[in-house]
Amino acid sequence: MLLATVVLWSLGITVTRYILTHGFEPLAYATVRYGLAALIFVAMTLAVERSVRVLRSDLRLVGAAALLLFLNQLAFVYALDRTSASVIALILGATPIVAALLGLVLGTERPAGRFWAGAAVSFAGVGLVALGAGGNVSGDVVGILLGLGVAASWAAYSVAIAPLTRRYSPMRISALVLTLAWVAIAIVGARQTADQPLDLGWEVWALLVFATLGPLVLTNILWFRSLHRIGAARATLAANLQPFVAAVFALVLLSEQMTWVQVAGGVLIGAGIVLARRRSARRS
Q1: Contact 16, 190 (CB under 8 A)
Q2: What is the pLDDT of residues 1-27, one digit of tens each?
Q3: Cα 147 from Cα 155, distance rounded (Å)
Q4: CA separation for the pair 122, 193 (Å, rounded)
Q5: In whole angstroms, what is the distance from residue 272 CA to residue 240 CA?
Q6: How far apart (Å, rounded) are the C-alpha atoms in residues 99 and 109?
Q7: Which of 114, 157, 159, 171 is most buried, by CB atoms within 10 Å?
Q8: Which regions of the chain are under pLDDT 70?
């Protein structure tokens, strides 16, 4: 499930970058995409479970998750709009470390020493993947800060959502969280959405549909199930494969070049994940 999620996320970055550079404004794109995804999840949840209700005691957690997802998407679209993919990939290497720290503070995770060693190795691999992209790891200050916001908000979102996955299905969680996040995105992006030109070509609209159904709808279900099974820290560590997989897609789809430095980075990322997943003989 994590492998499928990483592949779709990697495609989602390439697709989003293409859409944003071919006429779509960042907030208009996020509004349309999350609006479609929210409708899909609400319809699926009502059809299968007949209800989207949650316990009153969980409403605060749902609201917090929606707020974090809202902030994550704002940072995501503007980071890709302003900064190269290699820079964002490098910054996202910090996500598992942030997730582990948050889980440690909240008492939801107890990362062992192997996890920290694996996280360090994977982060080094992410750095090599970014450095291999023509040696260009620079970007404007705002874009870099937004990239840090993407990493931090996604880690916090993953930790916050984990308790809900033990009580509700991924569909019900997504129906509520995505809908609330979309309302906030729609309000903030109302002007861009109203002024957004629609004659962008069928390719852009087709990619928008894919970016909604694949990297957003399907990956939400797979990601939630992964969080439920192995915890936020280990799940976000596996997401470090994303920059290497994205480089492969760029090589095939965009005729970009891949250096041996990037290949070495991918090997390190995989080695870090294997190291972190090995269980110690004594369980905490």
Answers
A1: no
A2: 888 888 898 888 888 888 988 889 999
A3: 13
A4: 38
A5: 9
A6: 9
A7: 159
A8: 84-91, 93-94, 96-98, 100-101, 108-109, 111, 129-141, 144, 232-233, 236-237, 239-240, 243, 247, 250-251, 254-258, 273, 277-284
Burial class (CB in 10 A: 0-12, 13-18, 19+), 19: buried
Retrieve residue 200's tokens: 């962008």
The residue whose two tokens read 């970016």 is 211
* CB burial readout 36-64, b (16+ within 10 A) else e: bbbebbbebbeeeeeebebeeebeebbee
Q: Report which residue type is found at 92.
A: L
Hey, how many other C-beta atoms are within 10 angstroms of the C-beta on 105? 10
Burial of 278 (0-12, 13-18, 19+ CB in 10 A): exposed
Q: Are 19 and 204 in contact (CB under 8 A)?
A: yes
The three state secondary structure string of the chain is: CHHHHHHHHHHHHHHHHHHHCCCCCHHHHHHHHHHHHHHHHHHHHHHHHCCCCCCHHHHHHHHHHHHHHHHHHHHHHHHHHHCCHHHHHHHHCCHHHHHHHHHHHHCCCCCCHHHHHHHHHHHHHHHHHHHCCCCCCCCCHHHHHHHHHHHHHHHHHHHHHHHHHCCCCHHHHHHHHHHHHHHHHHHHCHHHHHHCCCCCCHHHHHHHHHHHHHHHHHHHHHHHHHHHHHCHHHHHHHHHHHHHHHHHHHHHHCCCCCCHHHHHHHHHHHHHHHHHHCCCCCCC
Question: Tokens standing for 232?
Answer: 């936020």
Tell me the Cα Rg of the chain. 18
User: Could you tell me the two tokens for 235?
Assistant: 């799940």
